[in-house]
Write a structure and sequence with these properties.
Blueprint lengths: L2 E7 L4 E7 L5 E7 L3 H11 L6 H20 L8 E5 L13 E2 L2 E2 L7 E4 L9 E4 L2 E2 L4 E2 L2 H6 L9 E5 L4 E7 L2 E8 L1 H11 L15 H16 L2 H4 L2 H7 L5 H17 L10 E5 L1 H14 L9 E4 H16 L1
Parallel strand pairs: 1-4, 4-8, 5-9, 11-14, 14-15
Antiparallel strand pairs: 1-2, 2-3, 6-13, 7-8, 9-10, 11-12, 12-13
């Protein structure tokens, strides 16, 4: 297989990429806000039976494939489509059970659904399900994890920053533990929908020296203090003119990331990998530099989240086709 379609269908966004299977390079892509939630609501409005659900979702995929074909002036008939993320949820194309940890890092025992090409949809479809423990779940990160580099036999720690940041422990070629932290969601709520929102502003420019310092202070506060108290310092910083709104923005970011990572203090960590987009991963990388004042850990490796998705999807596909 020289090419395939990689689809990362999230709750609020849709991304379809035509990928070169040899080097994982993206040839072209289509993206929109046609996320799984919106798609599910549109399907439900039709009043159709559950038997029509997969076909409804496939028509949306097909419309985006046609856009890519027109853009590139090619025919993609017969190329497989590989989906991970929310496509396997109860809002997705079909609900697949989570694979209970531990699962193999080669992706061979993940739960998948294969839908053969038909006259209506001329592409084989593979849907990859998520992973779970007794009290936690992930959808999408399991595929990224498969696409990451792993050290044979060694216990490693993978962090997937985001709205719901995931921490995954691996060892002996398996994913063995999982924890979720609502870091990004709490940042959204506190910075936009709480009393702190009046004291916070993202200037979206190059970070100043004071903003960098505020982020570092936030990391230290997250590790050393109670967030219910230190979070209110943002309000005080504004009232007493101690920090600007932009500095408070970076302080809150550091505070939440520090709170997320504080559980790693005094843990025996042999290797750490941060998997995500460069901007967010760099903030976690900086956080670990600050955390080294409290604990000794190896410097984290950084892997690109988008590349990890593509690699993981192809590895799982090759295991199950």
């Amino acid at each position: 297989m020289e090419r395939f379609f990689s689809c990362d269908w999230g709750t609020s966004s849709f991304r379809l990429k035509l990928v070169n299977a040899k080097d994982y390079s993206i040839i072209a892509e289509e993206k929109s806000d046609q996320g799984i939630l919106r798609t599910f609501e549109l399907w439900r409005e039709t009043g159709s039976s559950n038997e029509t659900r997969a076909a409804f979702y496939c028509r949306i995929i097909e419309s985006n494939i046609k856009k890519l074909e027109e853009k590139l002036r090619i025919s993609s008939k017969g190329l497989p489509v590989i989906l991970s993320g929310m496509a396997s949820s109860n809002l997705g194309i079909c609900e697949l059970p989570y694979k209970k940890l531990p699962f193999l890092l080669d992706g061979s025992d993940l739960n998948i659904e294969l839908i053969a090409a038909s006259e209506e949809f001329a592409h084989d479809l593979m849907i990859i399900s998520g992973g779970r423990t007794e009290d936690d779940v992930m959808r999408g990160e399991e595929t990224q994890l498969v696409g990451c580099s792993h050290s044979s036999g060694k216990k490693e720690f993978f962090i997937f920053p985001g709205t719901h940041s995931k921490h995954v422990v691996t060892g002996d070629g398996r994913a063995i533990d999982l924890k979720t932290y609502m870091t990004g969601e709490f940042f959204e709520l506190l910075s936009k929908k709480s009393i702190l929102s009046h004291s916070i502003e993202n200037n979206r420019g190059e970070e100043t020296e004071n903003e960098i310092k505020s982020f570092e202070e936030g990391i230290e506060s997250g590790v050393q203090s109670n967030i219910l108290n230190s979070g209110f310092h943002i309000r005080v910083n504004s009232l007493l003119n101690k920090k600007s709104s932009a500095e408070n923005y970076h302080y809150l970011s550091g505070l939440l990331i520090g709170t997320e990572l504080k559980e790693l203090v005094n843990k025996d960590l042999t290797g750490i990998t941060i998997v995500g987009e460069r901007g967010l991963s760099s903030r976690y990388e900086k956080a670990f530099q600050i955390l080294n004042r409290f604990l000794k850990t190896p410097s984290p490796k950084i892997e690109d989240g988008e590349t990890a998705v593509i690699k993981g999807q192809l590895i799982v596909y090759n295991c199950h086709r």
